[in-house]
Amino acid sequence: MAGLAAAARLREFGASPVVLEKGTRPGGSMLLSSCVVWRFRDWEEYRAECPAGDERLQRLVWERLDEAIEWLVSLGAPVVWDETGNPRTVGKRFDPHGLTDALVRRAGEIRVGQTWSEQSDQTDLTSWSDQTNPSIVATGGFQGSAEFVTRYIRPAGLLRLRANPWSVGEGLRLGLERGAALSAGMDEFYGRNMPDVDLVESDFVSQAQLYGRFARVFNERGEEFFEGDVSWSENDLVQATARQPNARAWYVLDDDALAQRVRDRTVADLAAAALTATDPSELPFEPPAGARIGVRVAPGITHTIGGLRIDERARVLHEDGTPIDGLFAAGADVGGISTGGYASGLAAALVFGRIAAESVVA
């Protein structure tokens, strides 16, 4: 989202950006998502949900998202739903392939399967990241990097990826090499608890086990490890699962839980499709009274929440708060926006991809 939106916006200003796409196709993890782009309906709720986030950056997302969504529509991005399905939020759901195609058509030159290091000896890219030749890093976060995940999120190493395989922290690494400061929330991520089996990309949305708030949740030792109420997004439960032994949990469901609804499906439907649903007698611990089904889950990491520190113009900052010449960032390479909670990563990517482009040409 961030890189393509930045390139499309730059071309509207008459610039000729070059998009270096490491993957085998454009779209990154946006292409694998449900593609709901949203903001909280009320500003106060945004702050309450993400209290440790950078308020200046949050305010820009909240104020500029509606305009940015209409911009996507004007580019021909197909809308699936005009609402989010959640009364607490406003936004639209796009078709991910159609949205990607609409942005690609406007983004200009895209070099697929290529990275900066593979292009740096070419004459048109040898001078970069200064005031004359700025760069926007939008590599999608560091969730695919064993080095960075071990350093910042989970000492035991990588989690299951619920994302594209190419986002391995190259934007973070580049920023650190240039002396960039890091945001708050480097140990946080957004994801979903998924069935503990090997999944393909087409399962990332349909197999999300988004009913932990109705279950009793145990780790492999049979301990109920989550204290308090699970949030509406369940991202707090996913991160808590990542800290358990072997980063695994069991959702144990009784009749009342199975009858609950999550959007258009019952919990019973979701659990039945989970591939790891089992009879309570097969649990590795004594099941609680009334248990009907147990589902073994593992956290799937979609994108990191911490990252490079930026200002309101999407400029990457030094520790002293001064901008690094010619270096901008957007998308999951930026940290500190939804620290302490959960907000739409696609919304922040869209808004700051456009802001980065506007800052480059300012």
CATH topology of the largest domain: FAD/NAD(P)-binding domain
The overall pLDDT, averaged over residues, is 93
- Structural category is alpha+beta
Count of individual helical segments: 12
How far apart lie the N and C ends? 22 Å
What count of structural domains? 2
Strand tally is 16
What is the overall shape? globular
How much of the polypeptide forms β-strand, as a percent range?
A: 15-25%
The CATH superfamily label of the largest domain reads: FAD/NAD(P)-binding domain
Q: What's the Cα radius of gyration?
A: 21 Å
Give the H and E element order: HEEHHEEHEHEHEHEHEHEHEEHEEEEH
Uncertain segments of ≥5 residues (pLDDT<50)?
121-128
Task: Jot down its keywords.
single chain; 362 residues; alpha+beta; FAD/NAD(P)-binding domain; Flavocytochrome C3, Chain A, domain 1; 2 domains; six-stranded mixed sheet; three-stranded antiparallel sheet; 16 strands
Could you characterize what this model shows?
- Helix content is 30%, strand content 19%.
- The protein is α+β, with helices and mostly antiparallel strands and 362 residues long.
- The chain folds into two domains: 244 residues, 3-Layer(bba) Sandwich (FAD/NAD(P)-binding domain), CATH 3.50.50.60; 110 residues, Flavocytochrome C3, Chain A, domain 1 (Alpha-Beta Complex).
- Strands 7, 8, 9, 10, 13 and 14 form a six-stranded mixed β-sheet that branches. A three-stranded antiparallel β-sheet has the order 2-4-3. The protein has a three-stranded mixed β-sheet with strand order 6-16-15, covered by helices on one side.
- Strand 11 and strand 12 form a beta hairpin.
- It starts with a helix and ends with a helix.
